[in-house]
Design a protein that fits this description.
Layout (H helix, E strand, L loop, with lengths): L1 E6 L6 E5 L8 H24 L3 H6 L1 E4 L5 E5 H5 L6 H6 L1 H25 L4 H10 L2 E3 L6 H9 L2 H22 L10
Antiparallel strand pairs: 1-2, 1-5, 3-4
Helix pairs in contact: 1-5, 5-8, 6-7
């Protein structure tokens, strides 16, 4: 989406303010992966030490494999992990549904949050345009009007971009890409 902007001093000449689908790039999946990685770490440490506590088991139940790795087999850590193969996908559709929903929703929320925190929100863009003496076509010199126009597009573009990155990650996970589509799983 490109929004026409003009400078106050140069009447009749227009430029564009782009609002891209991948407004946040790959930041949402990086943040989502860091969240999952931290949950895995905390869950494994607590499970090895206090495996009989109910709340610890809700966080994650871990099983050691032949290769010396631990894999989640229950609890929140299990549902936040990708299905290992097509058999797991078919055997436990609730796990798959939870995983897909978690990835898509968390990526959308992280994208919207990142836009607000990184100085790329609707309010930040409106302020930058006003400070640089630009205005949107039909919204002369009123930051609130510019903000409301931009706010129709920026949060939606951020959320859809986050969901798109999540879909790419899910596709890589389900195709068994090397190292998976997720950075830390």
């Amino acid at each position: 989406m490109e929004i026409k902007i003009a400078h106050k001093k140069y009447a009749g000449q227009y430029a564009t303010q782009p609002i891209k689908l991948f407004y946040c790039s790959n930041t949402p999946i990086i943040l989502q992966s860091a969240l999952v990685s931290n949950l895995y770490f905390i869950s494994q440490v607590l499970y090895k030490r206090y495996k009989n506590f109910f709340l610890i088991r809700l966080l994650g139940v871990w099983q050691d494999t032949e290769g010396g790795h631990s894999v989640p087999v229950g609890g929140l850590a299990y549902y936040m992990s990708p299905p290992r193969d097509l058999v797991d996908f078919l055997r436990d559709p609730l796990h798959t549904l939870f995983y897909v929903t978690f990835v898509l929703v968390s990526c959308a929320l992280f994208a919207k949050t990142w836009v607000e925190l990184s100085g790329r929100s609707s309010r930040d863009i409106a302020k930058q345009l006003r400070d640089n003496q630009y205005f949107l076509e039909g919204f002369r010199d009123n930051e609130e009007n510019i903000y409301s126009k931009l706010n129709r597009y920026v949060p939606v573009a951020a959320a859809l971009g986050g969901v798109s990155i999540g879909i790419l990650t899910l596709f890589a996970d389900f195709m068994g890409a090397i190292g998976s589509g997720n950075l830390f799983s």
